[in-house]
């Protein structure tokens, strides 16, 4: 017996020495990619404390890096997601707008992670019109998804209907996978993708009850008259007063609209409202009616004597109450996921990213929605933590783009990115290097004519300037001096003082179009494809 123990001890000792001598191979990190839909950086307290408080999203910033100039290549939902997954600009991956289906012959980074031993899961909103490739597990909302009692497409069981509030449900599904379904022996990539705070801004009951009593500071450009800019800003249909739905968005009861003689903002204004409340069960509907009724009663009294200015102010407050109410649940969900990682010892070797598919207007220029290359929609929140690599509480002002995620994650996983990806890995920046990361960002928006009527445009953005070409039904150039004109109110394209700058930027833009393989031929091809879709009635 003694002899056996001695032999065993020697064996154990030898193995330990061998393990100790073996070169240390770091464990590949897990990646938790959290993305919400239309979450403006103005509505994250780590960026801006004026509107709301997001203590859990802020935790990522406290432990990691806050990017103050992160931006997108095409400020709209499904195209942004396609850029993220493929690491290629819209004109290369083909998903230039929300209408064209995603071309699934594109290679996406989750496919490469999966092929290299990562476990992959996606929960929430994708908006591709087809299921994601490269995922061991997914549960995704069909198309835009619904806020209450949403339908969901599951990989294992096909379509299902869920009961409850969408943000909470996506969080529960995500936590369940982390707790019960994940293989603990494999590194994982998890995409946790919220529908909120997308239009029509329906918060969870607990939050609309709370937020309906709040008031918020107005942005300085709420009453913008669009002078000093070209036709694109003037013709966009994103104005809070003129284009927001009264019932569907502001929750004025349809019967009250009739009594007050308020016309629908769009033909679907009341239909949208009815579709939203139509999904609720009697208990949910009762809380809704009981909460929005007093607001409606007050509005009924006020409306007949309200000036246009007061109407705009009222609509802004209503918008913020519901939009920020939606974000409250997103923040709670993020908190639960962060807690789970910490409690299970996963936080040390996990990269956590918080971002949005693009920025959003919260009343700036009188607008809601996105699409423009102007700052509130061009820039997007980006906060990343990676213990041991990223310094806690750091800030970075480089112009990183959603184009960069694919190469970043592949490099983090030790996988060589395909040579045709068009971004740059952010890992040097994470490590505190990567100065002069990108001197100009390229941008191209396509979806026109369509909802909100934002004209097609492409352009470049440098630290100091923005050069934009609006095309298709116009041929207009705009130039903004970002340092002198923070709100982008004055197009200086024809100001002789900017002649040299303008010439340099034109040159730089032409170079970037070549670098990224964009061209007038492609612009024309995408217009022709769009016209085909219009003819077939799909737009
Ligand atoms: C819907 C919204 C628009 C929004 C687009 C695209 N209208 O059409 O306001 O811009 O989606 O949003 S709604 O009245 O139907 O809500 S995206 O995030 O999917 O790109
Ligand atoms: Ca979006």
Folded structure, characterized:
With 539 residues, the protein is of the alpha/beta class. 37% of the residues lie in helices and 13% in strands. It has 17 helices and 14 strands. The protein has helices spanning 2-21, 55-63, 77-86, 90-93, 109-115, 166-181, 205-211, 231-235, 254-260, 269-278, 282-302, 308-343, 375-378, 405-412, 427-430, 499-515, 520-535, and strands spanning 30-36, 65-67, 119-125, 137-141, 151-154, 158-161, 188-193, 350-356, 382-385, 394-396, 441-445, 457-461, 465-470, 476-481. The strands form two sheets. It has a ten-stranded mixed β-sheet, sandwiched between helices. β5 and β6 form a beta hairpin. It is globular, with a radius of gyration of 25 Å. The site of 2-deoxy-6-O-sulfo-2-(sulfoamino)-alpha-D-glucopyranose has 15 residues, from loops.
Features:
17 helices, globular, 539 residues, 10-stranded mixed beta sheet, binds 2-deoxy-6-O-sulfo-2-(sulfoamino)-alpha-D-glucopyranose, single chain, binds calcium ion
């Amino acid at each position: 017996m003694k002899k056996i123990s001695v032999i065993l001890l020697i064996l154990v000792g030898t193995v330990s020495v061998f393990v100790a001598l073996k070169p240390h191979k770091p464990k590949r990190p897990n990646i938790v990619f959290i993305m919400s839909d239309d979450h403006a950086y103005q509505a994250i307290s780590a960026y801006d404390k004026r509107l709301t408080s997001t203590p859990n999203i802020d935790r990522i910033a406290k432990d990691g890096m806050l990017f103050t100039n992160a931006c997108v290549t095409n400020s709209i939902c499904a195209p942004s997601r396609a850029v993220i997954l493929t690491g290629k600009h819209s004109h290369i991956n083909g998903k230039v707008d929300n209408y064209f289906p995603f071309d699934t012959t594109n290679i996406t980074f989750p496919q490469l992670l999966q092929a290299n031993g990562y476990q992959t899961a996606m929960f929430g909103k994708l908006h591709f019109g087809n299921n994601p490739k490269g995922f061991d597990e997914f549960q995704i909302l069909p198309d835009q998804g619904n806020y209450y009692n949403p339908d969901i497409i599951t990989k294992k069981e096909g379509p299902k209907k869920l009961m409850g509030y969408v943000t909470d449900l996506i969080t529960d599904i995500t936590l369940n996978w982390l707790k019960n379904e994940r293989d603990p022996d494999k590194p994982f990539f998890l995409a946790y993708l919220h529908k909120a705070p997308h239009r029509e801004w329906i918060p969870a009951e607990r939050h609309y009850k709370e937020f309906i009593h709040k008031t918020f500071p107005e942005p300085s450009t709420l009453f913008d008259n669009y002078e000093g800019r070209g036709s694109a800003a003037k013709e966009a249909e994103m104005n809070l007063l003129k284009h927001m739905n009264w019932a569907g968005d502001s929750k004025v009861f349809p019967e009250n609209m009739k009594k007050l003689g308020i016309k629908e903002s769009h033909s679907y204004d009341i239909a949208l409202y009815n579709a939203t409340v139509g999904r609720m069960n009697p208990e949910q509907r009762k809380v809704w009616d009981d909460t929005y009724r007093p607001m409606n009663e007050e509005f009924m009294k006020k409306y007949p004597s309200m000036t246009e200015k007061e109407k705009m102010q009222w609509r802004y407050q209503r918008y913020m109450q519901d939009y920020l109410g939606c974000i409250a649940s997103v923040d709670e969900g993020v908190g639960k996921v962060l807690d789970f990682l910490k409690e299970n010892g996963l936080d040390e070797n996990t990269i956590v990213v918080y971002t949005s598919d693009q920025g959003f207007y919260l009343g700036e220029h009188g607008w809601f929605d996105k699409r423009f290359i102007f700052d509130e929609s061009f820039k997007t929140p980006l906060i990343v933590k990676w213990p041991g690599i990223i310094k806690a509480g750091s800030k970075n002002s480089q112009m990183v783009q959603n184009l960069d995620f694919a190469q970043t994650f592949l490099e983090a996983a030790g996988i060589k990115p395909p040579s045709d990806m068009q971004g740059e890995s952010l890992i040097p920046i994470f490590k505190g290097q990567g100065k002069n990361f990108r001197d100009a960002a390229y941008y191209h928006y396509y979806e026109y004519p369509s909802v909100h009527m934002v004209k097609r445009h492409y352009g470049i953005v440098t630290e100091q300037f923005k050069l934009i070409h609006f095309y298709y039904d116009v041929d207009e150039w705009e130039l903004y001096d970002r340092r002198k004109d923070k709100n982008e109110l004055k197009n200086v394209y024809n100001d002789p003082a900017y002649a040299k700058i303008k010439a340099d930027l034109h040159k730089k833009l032409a170079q970037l179009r070549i670098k990224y393989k964009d061209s007038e031929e492609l612009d024309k091809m995408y217009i022709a494809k769009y016209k085909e879709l219009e003819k077939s009635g799909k737009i």
